[in-house]
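Figure caption, in words: inputs first, then the predicted bound structure.
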Amino acid sequence: MSTPDTFAARLADLQSRIAAACGRAGRDPGEVALLPVSKTFGADRIRAAAALGLRRFGESKMQEIREKAEALADCAIDWVVIGYLQTNKAKDAARLAAEVQSLDRLDLAQALDRRLQQEGRTLDVLVQVKTSDEPSKYGLDPAGLPAFVRALARDYPSLRVRGLMTLAVNSDDTEAVRACFRVLRGWRDRLRDEAIEGVDMTRLSMGMSGDFELAIEEGSTEVRIGSALFGARDYGTAGT
Ligand SMILES: *Cc1c(COP(=O)(O)O)cnc(C)c1O
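Bound structure (pyridoxal-5'-phosphate present):
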């Protein structure tokens, strides 16, 4: 498969692939949001993307959000945290993030809630769930999910739970990848049926450059796309 060589062309290509996957699944493309993942790419690249109408950007590190938010203070950008968030970065997240998709533990929830109360604001969060046995993946063990979501709703009123997020197993076996997405969707449906007060269990953030079409077929409402949009990442120099 050849990749178009400008950002605008890659965006158009991606949007048509998203629409085609929706078509196969009998879904309305309006149900599937695109979250561009700009980690390791500089402020100039994000500014150019924002000029094309993109507004939300996913980042893995609070440090990068801090630097980019400063460089792009004149752009109305919503920063979305998708990587492991250290508890001692809760203050920055409460100040700068529009949303955190990687909430996976109560000590982080408590720290965020306290800082959000100081800032006088609320924060949309997704709970990150571990849906594969890969040792490197962060996320909550699914068995603990119902109690975790109930505790969030009960104890941390500044956090508005909006759904679930996962990374599928990194594999060429499409059935194994689909199985991860199905697990997440199953838990979303089950928690939605519980109708926990204060919780809007709707969104499913799942699917990346290599597997977003499968994710859409399995019910994703939001795909997080980095390399298919921005190109290959260079971890050697960026974000340090
Ligand atoms: C980097 C990252 C992505 C995007 O990955 P690509 O394969 O470049 O699309 C999506 N989600 C998370 C959590 C990431 O860290």
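The radius of gyration is 17 Å.
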